[in-house]
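Z., the sequence and structure:
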Amino acid sequence: MTARALPRLFLVRHGETEWSRNGSTGRTDICLTARGEEQVRAQATVLVGDERPIDPKNICTAIISPRIRAHKTFHLLFEHLPEFPDHLITEEVREWDYGEYEGLVSGEIVARDPGWNIWKSGCPGGESAEEMQARVDRVIAKVRDYHRKWFEEGKGSRDVLIVAHGHFNRAIIARWNKFELALGTLTSTVEPGGVAVLSYSHHSLDEPVLDGLNLYAHEA
């Protein structure tokens, strides 16, 4: 069997929004700020293109949150190229549903609900931690199926790209590495516009690994 390069998942958080600046989050459709758009355009020139880290010819599919901040980020990353890669816009990679806590910052939530921790408590009227974990696990299973087809059968291409959100991306990183969802809170900060790279160790799809975190965030 021809040795193939290990497949990768590029995980991109959308660029800056007013909510990412003040610490709010949720499913509300918030646009990128002007600075957020500038961040992503600056990243695109070093990040995306032929022989660059995200090379369109290596992308078998891109999975994009339907929130405008994520969809706009995807478009800005590829607008300087002749065409966009194959992509799917789906609620599967939306941000954590904050339910009754939509738009609030952590301090405001804790004032209402002392001891609240989203990674364990979830959100009343929104998604529980168990529901979030199940959704993230379904996405990971789909990504790994793309990876398996490439690595073992030579079908498709090497990489998958996801453009999504801060909490969702931290949850993906935790579960990719087979940690409990609650460890998502320990996955450092996923910066607006930052890129994480998830892959595998020892040429084995049974050994998932985090290869990089917040790459290119300094360009933002």
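The chain has seven helices and six strands. The chain has a mean pLDDT of 91.

Let me know what you think.
H.
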